[in-house]
């Protein structure tokens, strides 16, 4: 078993991992890390923990001290299929906002077994905050009150799996910040569907905006993680699920999914998305921008399931053929344009000739110059400024967003048979 505990460490606590082979890992926890709140754990310890689980494959994980960090370690272990025993936390560690309570409730319900807290008053307080929590069972008893926890076999993971990338190479805090701005496109929606929702990051964004949303995801590990955050997720193939959703949603979000599909499947995705939308509904597609240098060089091929880039113009044409009208294109921003540049650097005009003759030498000593010399220097400065501006225009292509954003509307048919869209998106 892998045990996660805490021990005092001066002004802060220390999270300790006791490994099955007798090894120990220690991590300092700040005051903000101790609180159980709706905040994803720091990336580095999480990546090491995922590598440890996939490498060592312990029989299970026991978390003796729940903190903001160890709670996420428990979620990941549960998502990967490891049995997890959780000791309920002290009530004073629990943040009382709605999102934090939802996260804790989802985790405690997902746990293989809940161990009672050190103080019985904490259990009473938590049950008051979160009705419907499962029963706590002492570590030396099974769920039936007699048998101890049976040895776990661990997840059936052989070699590389997508889970190694999904949980060990993606910073969820960064993903949450990146996607937060997309929620504005769903203002006024009553039912939003997140296609290929993954670990539920955008479901979290929508929940914090008070928007009701459901995710659909085929990877069972990602589904378990999203559900442990308290989200509603259907475990199914997204395209197959869409085929059963005729006019069922007024908002559909599809982030970083289309690049996982070949062209014929991408066209099917757009057609079924259009069918699943109610008239006037909105569909938002986010995917790697092929015009982004960073996306081309640094990001796209990190994901082992990426198939190809899709240009926004191509997706727009395909969507129009499926009955979706473009309302907003994130590439159309002021100042964004492709500029040409040469392999050879621009050469400025030659410098003005050195003063010659007694008149020019005299003027130079006085700090003066002739009109011709001043005009030559001005031409040189203008040429240098033009070269710098040209270089800056080329350099700005590195500043383009890594993601393309397309927002579509499903047209409404009026009483007289006319087709109309409900408006365009402003940002």
Residue windows where pLDDT falls under 50 for at least 5 positions: 143-154, 156-160
Q: What would you report as the Rg, rounded to the nearest angstrom? A: 29 Å
Spatial sequence of strands, sheet with the most strands: 9-8-7-10-11-13-12
Overall shape: it is extended
**Distance N to C terminus:** 50 Å
Structural class: alpha/beta
Mean pLDDT across residues: 86
- SSE succession: EEEHHEHEHEHHHEHEHEHEHEHHEHHEEE
Biggest beta sheet summary: 7 strands, mixed
Estimate percent helicity: 25-40%
Tell me the strand percentage band.
Answer: 15-25%
What is the number of helical segments per DSSP (H or I, 4+ residues)? Answer: 15
Tally of extended strands? 15
């Amino acid at each position: 078993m892998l045990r996660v505990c805490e021990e005092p460490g001066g002004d802060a606590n220390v999270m300790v991992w006791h490994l099955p082979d007798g090894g120990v890992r220690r991590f300092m926890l700040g005051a903000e890390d101790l609180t159980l709140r709706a905040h994803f754990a720091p990336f580095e310890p999480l990546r090491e923990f995922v590598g440890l689980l996939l490498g060592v494959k312990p029989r299970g994980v026991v978390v003796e001290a729940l903190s903001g960090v160890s709670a996420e370690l428990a979620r990941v272990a549960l998502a990967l299929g490891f049995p997890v025993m959780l000791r309920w936390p002290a009530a004073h560690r629990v943040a009382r906002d709605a999102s934090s309570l939802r996260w804790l409730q989802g985790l405690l319900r997902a746990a293989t077994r809940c161990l009672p807290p050190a103080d019985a008053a904490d259990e009473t307080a938590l049950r008051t905050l979160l009705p419907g929590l499962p029963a706590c069972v002492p570590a030396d008893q099974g769920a039936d009150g007699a048998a101890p926890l049976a040895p776990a076999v661990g997840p059936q993971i052989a070699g590389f799996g997508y889970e190694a990338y999904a949980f060990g190479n993606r910073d969820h805090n960064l993903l949450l910040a990146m996607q937060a701005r997309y929620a504005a496109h769903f203002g006024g929606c009553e039912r939003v569907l997140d296609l290929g929702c993954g670990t539920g990051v955008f479901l979290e964004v929508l929940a914090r905006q008070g928007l009701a949303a459901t995710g659909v995801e085929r990877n069972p590990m990602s589904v378990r993680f999203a559900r442990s955050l308290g989200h509603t997720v259907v475990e199914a193939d997204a395209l197959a699920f869409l085929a059963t959703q005729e006019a069922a949603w007024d908002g559909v979000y599809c982030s970083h999914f289309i690049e996982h599909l070949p062209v014929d499947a991408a066209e099917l995705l757009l057609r079924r998305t259009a069918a699943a939308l109610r008239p006037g509904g909105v569909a938002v597609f986010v995917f790697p921008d092929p015009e982004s240098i960073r996306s081309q060089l640094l990001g796209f091929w990190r994901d082992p399931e990426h198939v190809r880039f899709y240009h926004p113009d191509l997706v727009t044409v395909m969507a129009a053929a499926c009955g979706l009208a473009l309302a907003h294109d994130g590439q159309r921003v002021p100042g964004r344009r492709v500029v040409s540049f040469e392999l050879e650097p621009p050469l400025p005009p030659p410098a003005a000739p050195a003063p010659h003759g007694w008149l020019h030498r005299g003027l130079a000593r006085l700090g003066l110059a002739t009109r011709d010399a001043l005009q030559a220097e001005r031409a040189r400065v203008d040429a240098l400024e033009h070269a710098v501006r040209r270089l800056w225009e080329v350099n700005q292509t590195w500043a383009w967003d890594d993601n393309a954003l397309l927002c579509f509307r499903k047209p409404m048919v009026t009483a007289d048979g006319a087709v109309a869209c409900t408006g365009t998106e402003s940002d």
